[in-house]
Amino acid sequence: MELFIAIFTGTVIAATPLIFAALGELVVEKSGVLNLGIEGMMLMGAALAFWAVTAGCSMPVAIIAGALAGAAASLLFGVLALTFLTNQYAAGLALAIFGSGVSAFIGRGFGSDPIEALHGVNIPILSDLPLIGPLLFRFDPLVYLALAMFVVISWFLYRTKAGLILRTIGESPQTSHAIGHPVIRIRYMAVLFGGLMAGLAGAYLSVAYTPLWVENMTAGKGWIALALVVFATWRPLRVLLGAWLFGGMTILQLQGQALGLQVPSELLSALPYLATIVVLVLISRNRQMLALHFPASLAKPFRPAG
Amino acid sequence: MHPRLELRNISKRYPGVVANDDVSLTIQPGEIHAVLGENGAGKSTLMKIIYGAAQADSGEIYCDGKLITAHNPAMSRALGIEMVYQHFALFESVSVVENIALSASSAFDLPSLAENIRELSLRYGMPIDPHRQVHDLSVGERQRVEIVRCLLQAPKLLILDEPTSVLTPQAVVKLFDTLRQLSAEGCSIVYISHKLDEVQELCDTATVLRNGKVTGTARPKETTSLELARMMVGSKLPEMHVSPAAPSERPVLEVRNLSASARDHFGVDLKDVSFNVHGGEIVGLAGVSGNGQAELIALLSGERRHAQGGAIKISGMPAAALRPDERRKLGLAFVPEERLGRGAVPSHTLWENAVLTAHRFGTVRKGLVDRRRASAFAAGIIDRFKVKANGPGATAQSLSGGNLQKFIVGREIALAPKLLLVSQPTWGVDVGASAFIRQTIVDLSRAGTAVFVVSEELDELFEICDQLLVICQGRVSPPLVRASTDREEIGLLMTGRTTSNDQKGSGSVALQD
Fold first, then answer.
1. Residue A287: closest CA among chain B residues belongs to which residue?
2. Considering only CB atoms, which residues of chain A are within 8 Å of chain B?
3. The domain B251-331+417-511 is classified under which CATH number: 2.115.10.20, 1.10.1670.10, 3.40.190.10, 3.40.50.300?
4. What does pTM read for this prediction?
5. Tens of pLDDT, residues B113-150
6. Considering only alpha carbons, which residue of chain B is nearest residue A305?
7. What's the half-sphere exposure (Cβ side, CA atoms, 13 Å) at B153?
C-alpha cells in the first residue's frame, strides 16, 4: 500500500510540469501558432523562480516570477513570429536555445544546494483521512492549479465565444480577419499565455519537484510537451492523460532502478519518453479525428490584407 | 418614397484598370435587380463598394435617401445591407450555429441561436440543421448557411454574388423561391450573374456592365437573351461549331468496375465505376461537386494509383497502377481543375511551365533544359491559342484566369494526346475565352482524340459533349446520349434519383440540395 501511494502521488507530481507546458502550448497551437521554444521558456521560468527563492522572496512571489519569465520569453517569440512574420519553426528553435543559454547564465551563481521545497497543502479533516488523505489531499498547491487549468482551458476552448474565436483563427485567419476578429492581437495573447504556462512548468521543476538548480534541468520535458500536444490530437483531455502516462512511466522506472533491475539505468531513464510517444502515436492513428482537431493554419504566418 | 439604394456616378480605379467608370443605378424596395456582366466587367468591385469593403474614388451612395459617408462593412450591416459571398466565409471545423454565432453581435447563447436558425431556415424553405459540422455540408447547404446568416440580421438589401454557380438545377429553383419570398416581404436583392436565363427568370430589372461601364439597363423578362448578351459582350458572340462525332472502333479509355475508398474524411468512395471513351468523341461527367469527381480524376490522371491495373485501360494497356508520367507516355494529357498549383507553378515562367509536361517534345535533351526550344514551344502556344501574356518569360500567376487556362489547355493539346482529361475547363473564365476553349476541345476530339470532361456547368456539357455521365455519391450513371436527354433528367440523376423509379414525377421530388 505504501508503494502504491508512492507511485500514485509520484505520477501526479511528475506529470504536473508537463500538464502546464502542454496545455499552454495547446492553446497557442489552437490559435494557429507553433512555438517550439517551450524548453527555453521552461528553463527561464525555472531559473528565475529559483533565483527569487534564494533572494528571499516568498514562494508565491517566486512562482509568479517564474511564470512571468516564461511569458517574457514568449513575447520575444511573438514579436518575431507575429509582428515580423519570421518562420515560426526557426523562431521557436531560437527561443529554445536562447532560453537554455540565458538560464545557464542566470544560474551560474546558484551552487548545488537544494532549497526548501514548496509544501503540500494541509486541509483540515480531508488531508488526515486514511488512504484518501495522502492520495488526494496532500499535494502542493500547484498540482491542484494544474488540474484547475485543465478544467478552465477545456471550458474556455469549447464553451465560450472567445474560445471559439481562438479555434477558428487557428483554422482560417483570413476568414476571421474578414469577419472582423483581431487575429494578431488574439494570437499574441495565446502566445503569452503559453509562455506563462511554460514558465509555471519550469518554476514547478526548480522550486517544488527537484528542488534545486541544475543546468538544463528540464531534460527535454519541453519537447515531450510539444509531442504530447500533437499526439493528443490537440485535445485537452488527451493531453492530461498523456502527461499522467509520462509521469507514471517516470516513477515506475525510478522504482525499477531502486529495486535493482538488471537493465542499464540509461535505458530505464529513456523509457518514459519512449512509452509516451509509442502510446500517443497509437491513439493518434485515426487520421479523420486528427483532421478535425488539427488547427489548419498552424505555423503559417498571417499578414492581414488591406 | 426613396429608393432603397441609389448609386450616382461611381468610379473606381486600380493601377492599370478602371474597374468602375461612372456607374449609376437605382434599386427600389422589394426589387430584384440583376447586375450582369462578364468576368472582369467590374461587377465584384461594384458590390464591394456597395458593401463598403472597397471605397469608390468618386461618386455617391444613397441608402433610403440618405447619403452614406465613410462607408465600411460595419456601416452596411447597421444599414441592413448584407452580402453572400461567392467563396463562403465559413469555418469547416465547427458547427453551423457556431459559425453564425461568430459574426452575430448578439449574446453568445448557442441554444437559442440554434432555435432561431432552425425556425428562420424553415420559414424560407431551406432547412438546415444548426448542429451539423460545416465540413459535412454540401456546397448548396453551405450557401444556405451563408444566406441564413444574412437573414438573421433582417436585411433590407441582400447582395448575392454568382450564387448558382455551385448548385444543381433543382437547388436553383429552391433558391429562387426563397429570393422571391424575400422580395415579397420588401427586401431588395442585388443579384450578380453572368447567366442570362437565370436573370430573365428571376430579376425585375438588370444593369449590364462591360469594362466597368454601364452598357444598358433592361427589364430582363421583356428582353431577349440575344439583346442582353450583346450588351454584355459588345461584339457578336462566337458561335460553336460541333460536327457529328465519328467514334473510333475501340475505346481509348476504358474504366471497368473501378472502386476506391476516399483518402480522407471529406472525400467520397467510388463504387463500381465503369465507362468508355472512344477516340473522336467527348464524354462529359456531370454532378454536384464533392460527389467523387475529385477522386475519379485523381485515379484517371495517375495522381492516385490503383492496385488493379486493369481497372483503367488507356489504348488497351492496363494503366491504373501506372505513375502519371507513364500514363502520359501512353498518350494521356491532363488539364486539372486548379490552374495555379496543379496546372501550373504560379511563380514560374510560362516556358518553365511548358517544360513540365512537354519534356519529351525536344525541350529537354540529355537531362538538360533547352531554353531556346522551350521558349519557342511556349511562344507557339501563346500565339496559337491567343494567350494574352507578356511573352514566354511571364510568370504563370501574372496571367488572368482565362488566359492561363488557355495556355494550359494549349500546352496539353500541343502534346497531341490520344486521350485528354479536362476538369472544369472554363471555371472562372470569361465568355469569350470559354467559347474559344470549348471550340478547341471540340476540334481536338474531331481530329480523333478521346476527350473526357468533368464540369459542374451543365450548359457547357450540353454544348460540347456527345455522351453524358452523371456522378452521384461515388456512383456513375450509364452513359446518356446528349441528343436524347435533357437538363431535367441529368438534374435528377445528380441528386441520386432516376426518372424511372421516381413514383411521384419530377415536379414534387424532395431535394437534398
1. B264
2. 160-161, 164-165, 167-168, 171-172, 175, 178-181, 287-288, 291-293, 296
3. 3.40.50.300
4. 0.73
5. 999 999 998 888 888 899 999 888 877 788 889 989 99
6. B53
7. 23
